[in-house]
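This section describes the prediction task in plain terms. A model, or a person checking by hand, is given the sequence of a single protein chain and must write out its three-dimensional structure as a string of tokens. No templates, partner chains or ligands are provided. The sample shown here is typical of the held-out split.
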Amino acid sequence: MFLFWKSSDGFDLSLRLLLIFSVILSIGLIIVPIIVASALKQRKRWAWIASWCLTVLYLPSLFFPLGILMLMGILDKEVKEFFADDKVFNVASNT
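The expected answer:
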């Protein structure tokens, strides 16, 4: 019912759009880390890159402790060795 209210000045429309955008963004911020974490368990290279992106987003925010934990996990010796392996970075070479 809230989404169908009408006003003459258009101010309510901007508030409704802000609410919709905020809800969609919040849902995305919940779902994306879950998808990345499950893909990391499957050792997908794109998930490693996505986890770097999430870490960069989390470090300068209120999620700083979570960003530090993510950074510790990404910089782990075994993780770096696995994702630095040439087999993982299989770039269509003809050799």
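For orientation: The chain is about 65% helix and 0% strand.
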